[in-house]
Amino acid sequence: xxxxxxxxxxxxxxxxxxxxxxxxxxxxxxxxxxxxxxxxxxxxxxxxxxxxxxxxxxxxxxxxxxxxxxxxxxxxxxxxxxxxxxxxxxxxxxxxxxxxxxxxxxxxxxxxxxxxxxxxxxxxxxxxxxxxxxxxxxxxxxxxxxxxxxxxxxxxxxxxxxxxxxxxxxxxxxxxxxxxxxxxxxxxxxxxxxxxxxxxxxxxxxxxxxxxxxxxxxxxxxxxxxxxxxxxxxxxxxxxxxxxxxxxxxxxxxxxxxxxxxxxxxxxxxxxxxxxxxxxxxxxxxxxxxxxxxxxxxxxxxxxxxxxxxxxxxxxxxxxxxxxxxxxxxxxxxxxxxxxxxxxxxxxxxxxxxxxxxxxxxxxxxxxxxxxxxxxxxxxxxxxxxxxxxxxxxxxxxxxxxxxxxxxxxxxxxxxxxxxxxxxxxxxxxxxxxxxxxxxxxxxxxxxxxxxxxxxxxxxxxxxxxxxxxxxxxxxxxxxxx
Amino acid sequence: xxxxxxxxxxxxxxxxxxxxxxxxxxxxxxxxxxxxxxxxxxxxxxxxxxxxxxxxxxxxxxxxxxxxxxxxxxxxxxxxxxxxxxxxxxxxxxxxxxxxxxxxxxxxxxxxxxxxxxxxxxxxxxxxxxxxxxxxxxxxxxxxxxxxxxxxxxxxxxxxxxxxxxxxxxxxxxxxxxxxxxxxxxxxxxxxxxxxxxxxxxxxxxxxxxxxxxxxxxxxxxxxxxxxxxxxxxxxxxxxxxxxxxxxxxxxxxxxxxxxxxxxxxxxxxxxxxxxxxxxxxxxxxxxxxxxxxx
Lengths: 482, 295
What we know:
The complex is a heterodimer. Chain A is α/β, with parallel strands linked by helices. Chain A is built from 19 helices and 14 strands. Chain A has helices at about 15-20, 30-35, 45-55, 65, 75-80, 85-95, 100-105, 115, 130-140, 165-175, 190-195, 205-215, 235-240, 270-280, 305-320, 340-350, 415-420, 450-455, 460-480, and strands at about 155-160, 180-185, 220, 245, 265-270, 300-305, 325, 350-355, 355-365, 370-380, 390, 400, 405, 445-450. In chain A, the strands form three sheets. Chain A has a five-stranded parallel β-sheet with strand order 3-2-1-4-14. In chain A, about 55% of the residues are buried. The mean pLDDT of chain A is about 95. By secondary structure, chain B is an alpha/beta fold. Chain B has helices at about 20-25, 70-75, 110-120, 140-145, 165-175, 190-205, 250-255, 260-275, 275-290, and strands at about 1-10, 15-20, 35, 45-55, 60-65, 80, 85-90, 100-105, 125-135, 150-155, 165, 185, 205-210, 225-230, 230-235, 240-245. In chain B, a hairpin with a 2-residue loop joins strand 1 (about 1-10) and strand 2. In chain B, helix 5 runs parallel beside helix 6. The N and C termini of chain B lie close together (about 5 Å). The model of chain B has no long low-confidence stretch (mean pLDDT about 95).
């Protein structure tokens, strides 16, 4: 506890700072927003931002930065906000994080910077995510990015996948003077940011702006390329002259529970449900051609407790669902979703059926889902994940009438790159083996990170891997040493 | 954008497009497909690759107009473009020297069966092809199939061309004549593939079918194309599209493919009521994209 007052622009004493309450994020009213896809959070005003920024204790050893996967210099950018230099604050963040408008919105700050904030020992932590979002949006509105200029190195890097880790690698390496080309399988750039995270949590316009900024910096993009099918890693390196390749292909195919009735019409994977809505804009049918079942007046449940589960069920609610349930086999405490999302979902009227799991999907014979047979659970001994293992309660079965069930229970490794790249090592679940420090794979010049290495995780962890990879790719390209 | 260098009808409602797609042309193998999106508001649909020309950098696809997207596609001509084409997707056919291979193509499925038939022939197999269609004018790729087959049999449902009947009648004859068959590849309507599978199951003849579930990304992400194989979920885009016919649950495939029938009919009716206008709008959109330099 040693706040440093030296040259700080902050007019408040440490004691006064603790007395200022955490500034609330202005948001759309819950009973309005649950009917539209516009963003829930509306953003700080400059006044709110400066007031919130003044709460920072300016610790001598900032644990916020230590716990940030990309190492954002929180204390320094917050101090710039206090001084009113919002553009300076944005530039400070960009030194470590090329996507601040995105992480400011979707990063689980409670697991990283805010979770480690000294303030949180006594009061609510500093709103670091909100502040990050504020300066990124401020900078975007002014449209004055400062483009770094660096001499070209003559080296070429291929980045496979335009999700958060790929974009981080591209953004970091272009600033080192390397030529970077990003290959994307889908027709739109952004990976999970585009097909997975809904508009109400991360407006697509924000992603487009970040991509425009990267194009201005010189990053090249090519859509409609499935690396492994359209072109292989070996072809990129030996025929197209790339000196290094980064694989950031993201999460793979959805898992199902293997219970009876999972093939009924009306049972979706969260990936498909969200892709239809976010990427294909099925919620605008028939203006857009991709269809979606009409959810008005229907009862919908998502199975799972992560961010994907909440994104899916909150989307279903916005599409007119009458009842929207989260069915999760553990209790709310164990839910892996971001705390703010759980809170927002509860406000919006989502019905949380905790300690519950489906055992069968039922139909009335026409191939369409009509109900889920569920069982209540209780928590037993801790399992391998350290969380208490849910155990079914005997005789607790009940049928929940449903028209739609969305499975959000995790994903498996996408096999395409691994199966077409000889010598690329994988673990026993099929994920690519990469050194946790350098992100090097078993193939020289090939690096990997994000969900394709760790299995499904978060945007910020994927960006952290991208950051480490960019550093070691740069080392490899400049020293030639593997 | 992907330019159409040639568009020609092979039969009423069935059109061949040659597209500039150099990356796909270099990599395409028999059994694979592409996913395309015609225009900005369009859906993504899987489409058969008939052949490719790596030197010219072109692929040839064959499209039957059934729903809105395929009807729209078939209103495009030489010189028009398709916004997105991605592939080649799916695992290639397993081409080996098996001995005698019977290749069954039903309707537009013949276009998917053709490159595999050609590859089986090149691999030294005796290829017997059976091509079926509803009526005379829907028989496609007859010459192409003849060129790569040791024998070609044709059936039409109504008897307006060649022999009246179904492809399974010809397959039954082959079996009854004691023809040694080492492998059957069947591509066509689900009812046809199911009928072939039931016939060869009794005879213990290894049989492969190419499945066509609803698909969105086609790259192993969304899971929409899941099919039930031997009681387990598999994904046509990365585990298929070809599967052991004797393990496929065809009833589930039919059921799941009907999931959006209402929406599909609505889209089609909307399109048919002002088709020319929509095609013109898409051409305008493509011009704007071409001038803007994106895609």
